[in-house]
Design goal:
The chain is mainly alpha-helical. It has 4 helices and 2 strands, in the order αββααα. Helices cover 50% and strands 6% of the residues. α1 runs antiparallel to α2, α1 packs across α4 and α3 packs antiparallel against α4. The longest helix is centred in the middle third of the chain and has 20 residues. The N and C termini lie far apart (39 Å). The model has no long low-confidence stretch (mean pLDDT 96).
Length: 127
């Protein structure tokens, strides 16, 4: 399997989608829910560091990346779902990725995107 560092635009897209849709995530360190709206740069840093840790683990490197939060249009639920899937693939080289705060953030963004798919609200809850 290969891994690469996603672009600042890719990670900003995820954060901006979460920001637009008031996504929050649980932070084990503080024991509190955090809203992306109040933690834009911090959320971007978490995702950037997790992606970098994966790439560094895969290639036995110690590269550092620092991205800055920028506001961009992020409104397409299907695009954000694909971006989440790509992120997971690029960040999963570390053994604890699935239990990491980065994975929780991406999962919350993914859940919000699913709720925003056309027809989701009208679909039956049970069949």
């Amino acid at each position: 399997m290969s891994a690469w560092m996603l672009s600042a635009n890719h990670i900003n897209y995820l954060v901006n989608y979460g920001l637009k849709h008031a996504v929050s995530f649980y932070d084990e360190k503080t024991g509190m829910d955090k809203c992306i709206k109040d933690n834009r740069q911090g959320t971007l840093d978490i995702l950037t560091l997790a992606n970098a840790a994966s790439v560094n683990k895969r290639y036995n490197e110690a590269s550092a990346y620092e991205y800055r939060f920028v506001s961009i249009e992020a409104h397409d639920a299907v695009q954000v779902l694909k971006a989440c899937q790509s992120y997971d693939y690029q960040a999963c080289e570390v053994a604890d990725y699935r239990s990491s705060i980065a994975a929780r953030i991406v999962d919350e963004i993914r859940r919000e995107a699913i709720r925003n798919l056309p027809g989701y609200e009208e679909a039956k809850w049970t069949l």
